[in-house]
């Protein structure tokens, strides 16, 4: 299911993708995500904290509604960061 269906704006996604092309920012984001498990990504409080960390790294300001939409999206995707298929599916969604 597309992120647009969760109320996540394509302009926001494009802005984030552009920022993630900066190797320094990308490495900082990757380091902050290191060690996550599928259980972390199913807990709304944990996902919210991760989102706050990443938006701070990227210098993005999100409204509470945008944060809630992103948290809902992440939880509904049932992402397992150790499953290559899940990561490929996400990569395809945001290409």
What does this structure look like?
The chain is 63% helix and 0% strand. It has helices spanning 10-19, 23-33, 44-58, 64-77, 84-93. It is mostly helical and 95 residues long. It has one domain (3-93). Helix 2 (23-33) runs antiparallel to helix 3 (44-58) and helix 3 packs across helix 4 (64-77). The longest helix is centred in the middle third of the chain and has 15 residues, at 44-58. The radius of gyration is 13 Å and the shape is globular.
Which keywords apply here?
95 residues, 5 helices, 0% strand, globular
Short note summarizing the structure:
The chain contains five helices and no strands. By secondary structure, the chain is an all-alpha fold.
How is the topology of this model organized?
Layout: H1 10-19, H2 23-33, H3 44-58, H4 64-77, H5 84-93
Helix pairs in contact: 2-3, 3-4
What's the SSE pattern?
A: HHHHH
Mean pLDDT: 90
Number of strands: 0
Tell me what portion of residues adopts beta-strand conformation. under 5%
Share of helical residues: 55-70%
Distance between the termini: 14 Å
Put simply, the count of helices is 5
Characterize the biggest β-sheet: none
Q: How many domains make up the 3D coordinates?
A: 1
